[in-house]
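Support request from a user on the community tier.

User writes: "When I paste my structure tokens into the form, the page sometimes reloads and wipes my input. The last time it worked, I copied everything first. Here is what I submitted, just in case something in the input itself triggers the reload:"
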């Protein structure tokens, strides 16, 4: 369905934890780094067909 779309785009939500060391957040950081790397590879595989973006947000007060 994405390939048939007019402007296909996949957006991943990651975190700045994927790029920075935060003590006590090792598992969280590892999962976000995994999302970041998955998006990088997918971006290369889908180049010219589907845009792939990753958002690296800071903490959110929930």
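"...and here is what came back when it finally went through:"
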């Amino acid at each position: 369905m994405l390939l048939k779309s007019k402007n296909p785009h996949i957006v991943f939500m990651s975190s700045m934890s994927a790029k920075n060391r935060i003590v006590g957040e090792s598992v969280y950081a590892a999962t976000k780094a995994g999302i970041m790397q998955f998006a990088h590879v997918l971006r290369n595989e889908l180049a010219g067909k589907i845009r792939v973006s990753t958002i690296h947000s800071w903490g959110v007060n929930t």
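Agent notes: The reload is a front-end session timeout and is unrelated to the input. The radius of gyration is 14 Å. The chain has one helix and two strands. Escalated to web team.
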